[in-house]
Amino acid sequence: PGWHGWIHHRVDTPPSSESYKAREWQKPHRANLTGTPGAYRPQGSILTNQHRPQVTGDYDAWTPGS
Q1: Which of 30, 28, 26 is nearest to 40 (CA)?
Q2: pLDDT class of 25 with cuts at 50, 70, 90
Q3: 17-40 in b/e burial notation, b at 16+ Cβ within 10 A?
Q4: C-alpha to C-alpha distance for 9 and 2, rounded to whole angstroms
């Protein structure tokens, strides 16, 4: 948001010239790991080496003509 404000002439000082201090309630930045080996992959994803959870029996697959 700092750069956006400076680019759109809402503030006069660019963020690189400010002495910014994060507030105590702000979380530290975490990089977006999408597309990397560190990306989130839920259980059963085809991109993990885990096996898909067994079907619980509460679902009947559709078959043509039934």
Answers
A1: 30
A2: very high
A3: eeeeeeeeeeeeeeeeeeeeeeee
A4: 11
